[in-house]
Specification:
The chain is built from 11 helices and 22 strands. By secondary structure, the chain is of the alpha+beta class. The two termini are 35 Å apart. Bound molecules: flavin-adenine dinucleotide (FAD) and 3,4-dihydroxybenzoic acid. It comes from Spelaeicoccus albus.
């Protein structure tokens, strides 16, 4: 079959791209190797920047977000047993929203269904062909094992870090810059009311901990663990005990409850450039990864896609290639700001094996907790730089 844009990967980037293109009359086919139920259940990010919320609302995706999303006007920073509230509205006049990536994905799939968007789930063996020509195409087997081919004017690679799109750009044409961190996060989802109004980012001698949430009944918590940690090493009791120590604060205690999801998340910074090769364009995790501390991964996927949808609109409706030509540099400018902020938050909040580094990071955290000027800068970055 033939379409205007073949979209590889039905994560938030691919699904939002299909949605925005549909709204400007551009046809696409989405190809996804997992099942729909898997995509709708996968637990990932939880924080939307103000700008991401504005994008989703303007795209007609705001109904459930407005009802169930929780607006947060700040965060707590904790250092040892000291805890300070940072007020984002005072700092920069913006806020963030707690609304899980899982919910964003469900809303996007529901909108795709309502509009008759073609999404081929559970495909396998996909490969991209002739991406540097005017006639690129994708081959794959559908969920019944039948051989399929989609021809398109443009292929959008939104298939995440482990996808096939980034490797479809010849190595000689790509540069990769990356940084590994010597720690990972153990994340849990628990059926218990959050014991805090805003998220708590805590730096403790024992390691970093983050108190987040998904709703008034569901908490999401994270612990710094060594890179490569096995999830089996952490019983529920051990997790709650460790969380209680890392969030210890006079007169306050956390709420415990049944753990309904538990996993270890690796941490890296990774940037592959450029995000375009001929008629193949990349967006989201297929091109870049940030460590989760700055809550930027999902927001970057959304901002890439906004830039890309705008560029494809100009290309297909006005035959104007200027925005698609500048897409790699436009996206990279935003990406590098988020990459720096995520690195900065990560190193400031995590405990290192190196004593000199630890003193610097602890000093930086004390400075931020005591300076409204530093807090305004954190707020500006955390709530998201304007588009
Ligand atoms: P993805 O969500 O990865 O979507 C890619 C899609 O492509 C997937 O559906 C995948 O199944 C599909 N796919 C892969 N290969 C192929 C193929 N060959 N053919 C077809 N389809 C394919 N960010 C935060 O800010 N905070 C967090 O707490 C946080 N937690 C995370 C936890 C985990 C386990 C992971 C992996 C990421 C987390 N992130 C977090 C990052 C955030 O979730 C991502 O930045 C975001 O999902 C990026 O969206 P995406 O659509 O680009 O990629
Ligand atoms: C969540 C994840 C993050 O990485 C973060 O910085 C804040 C919240 C979350 O999953 O809720």
């Amino acid at each position: 079959s033939r379409t205007q844009v073949a979209i590889v990967g039905a994560g938030p980037a691919g699904l939002l791209l299909a949605h925005l293109l549909r709204r400007s009359g551009i046809e696409s086919v989405v190809l996804e190797n997992r099942s729909r139920s898997y995509a709708e259940a996968r637990i990932r990010a939880g924080i939307l920047e103000q700008g991401s919320v504005d994008v989703l609302r303007a795209a007609g995706l705001g109904d459930r977000l407005n009802r169930e999303g929780m607006r947060h006007g700040g965060i707590y920073l904790q250092h040892g047993e000291r805890r300070t509230h940072l007020d984002f509205e005072a700092g920069c006049g913006r806020s963030v929203w707690v609304y899980g990536q899982t919910e964003v994905v469900k809303d996007l799939i529901a909108a795709a269904d309502a509009d008759g968007q073609r999404i081929d789930w559970e495909i396998s063996g996909d490969a991209l062909h002739d991406v540097d020509t005017d006639a690129p195409y994708v081959t794959y087997r559908d969920s019944d094992g039948a051989s399929c081919r989609v021809d398109a004017a443009v292929i959008a690679g939104t298939d995440g870090f482990h996808g096939i799109s980034r490797p479809a750009i010849p190595e000689a044409r790509r540069s990769v810059l990356e940084k590994e961190y010597p720690y990972a996060w153990l994340g849990i989802l628990a059926e218990t009311a959050p014991a805090t109004d805003d998220l708590i980012y805590s730096r403790n001698k024992r390691g970093f901990a983050l108190y987040s949430m998904r709703s008034r009944e569901v908490s999401r918590l994270y612990l710094q663990v060594p890179a490569g940690e096995k999830v089996d090493a952490w019983s529920d009791d051990r997790i709650w005990d460790e969380l209680a120590r890392r969030f210890a604060y006079d007169g306050w205690s956390l709420n415990t409850g049944p753990v309904i999801d538990k996993s270890v998340l690796p941490m890296r910074s990774f940037v592959s450039a450029p995000m375009r090769h001929g008629n193949l364009v990349l967006a989201g995790d297929s091109a870049h990864i940030v460590p989760p501390t700055g809550a930027k991964g999902l927001n970057l996927a959304i901002s890439d896609v906004v830039l890309l949808a705008r560029a494809l609109h100009a290309k297909f409706t006005a035959n104007d290639d200027r925005l698609i030509d500048s897409y790699p540099s436009d996206a990279a400018a935003r990406l590098w700001r988020a990459t720096h902020f995520s690195y900065w938050m990560t190193t400031m909040m995590h405990v290192s094996d190196d004593a000199f580094t630890n003193e610097l990071q602890a000093s930086q955290l004390r400075y931020v907790m005591g300076s409204e000027i530093a807090q305004a800068s954190l707020a500006e970055n955390y709530t998201g730089m304007p588009y």
